[in-house]
């Protein structure tokens, strides 16, 4: 293993450019919607686009340093639910069906990574990443449900709602990416998990951090 580890993908002193494109599978920690008397739904992972350009410098035969610029679409989604209001001493006649709830946050990501080649073409990596917010918004569909006296429900027209979250979202994010990549014939498969370090919300009492995976395919240009 020690001998094989000396064979890096590129010779020491080599600089390469690698465009990448793939998926960002993202969620937020401690992200819940409370509804009804004591019900809640938690956010789930949502897959969106990620892509950009990375430069890699081979410092040593088995160690390189990479710096990239990526555009990553992040955020989360929520499962559908029916929000029934709590009314004291009165029958509930209407509820709201909530569907397609999405929280979307887009970033320009700048990762700085150390890559350690443990086998020819196979590298493990870790570093630090800054994210610069470009947009933050939410959207959902709402359907009014009328509960009739005969026990049946009548569904109204579905209405779409959206809004801007940029004013209540921190403009800079910090995360720790760790991952692994494999290169064959200049094609590079890359997997990373990003551990969010910074609270994304400006609202007091809300503690949410980004947590996301990236799967990308890259090509070493030179």
From the N-terminal CA to the C-terminal CA, the straight-line distance is 27 Å
Radius of gyration: 23 Å
Unreliable segments (pLDDT under 50, ≥5 consecutive)? 1-8
Number of helices in the DSSP assignment: 0
Strand adjacency order, main sheet: 1-4-5-7-8-10-11-12
Number of strands: 12
- Supply the helix-strand structural class: mainly beta
What sequence of helices (H) and strands (E) makes up the elements?
Answer: EEEEEEEEEEEE
Characterize the overall form.
Answer: elongated
What percent strand? over 45%
Could you describe the largest sheet, including whether it forms a barrel?
8 strands, antiparallel, barrel
The share of residues in helices is under 10%
Keywords:
222 residues; mainly beta; 12 strands; elongated
Question: Can you walk me through this structure?
Answer:
The protein has 222 residues and is mostly beta strands. It contains no helices and twelve strands. The protein has strands at residues 15-28, 32-35, 39-42, 46-60, 63-78, 81-83, 94-119, 122-147, 153-164, 172-184, 187-196, 210-219. The strands form two sheets. Strands 1-4-5-7-8-10-11-12 form an eight-stranded antiparallel β-barrel. A two-stranded antiparallel sheet has the order 2-3. Strand 10 and strand 11 (187-196) form a beta hairpin. Mean pLDDT is 92; it is low at 1-8.
């Amino acid at each position: 293993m020690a001998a094989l580890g000396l064979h890096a993908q590129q010779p020491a002193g080599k600089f390469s450019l690698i465009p990448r494109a793939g998926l960002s599978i993202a969620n937020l920690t401690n992200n819940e919607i409370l509804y009804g008397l004591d019900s809640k739904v938690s956010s789930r992972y949502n897959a969106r686009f990620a892509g950009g350009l990375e430069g890699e410098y081979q410092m040593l035969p088995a160690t390189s340093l990479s710096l990239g610029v990526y555009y990553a679409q992040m955020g989360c989604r929520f499962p559908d639910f029916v929000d029934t209001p709590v009314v004291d001493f009165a029958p509930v006649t209407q509820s709201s069906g909530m569907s397609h709830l999405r929280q979307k946050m887009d970033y320009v990501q700048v990762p700085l990574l150390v890559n350690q080649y443990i086998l020819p073409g196979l590298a493990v990596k870790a570093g630090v990443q800054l994210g610069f917010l470009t947009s933050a918004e939410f959207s959902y569909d709402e359907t009014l449900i009328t509960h009739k006296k005969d026990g049946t429900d009548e569904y109204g027209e579905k209405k779409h709602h959206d809004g801007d979250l940029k004013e209540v979202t921190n403009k800079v994010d910090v995360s720790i990416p760790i991952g692994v990549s494999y290169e064959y014939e200049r094609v590079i498969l890359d997997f990373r998990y990003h551990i969010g370090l910074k609270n994304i919300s400006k609202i007091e009492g809300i503690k949410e951090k980004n947590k996301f995976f990236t799967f990308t395919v890259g090509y070493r240009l030179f």
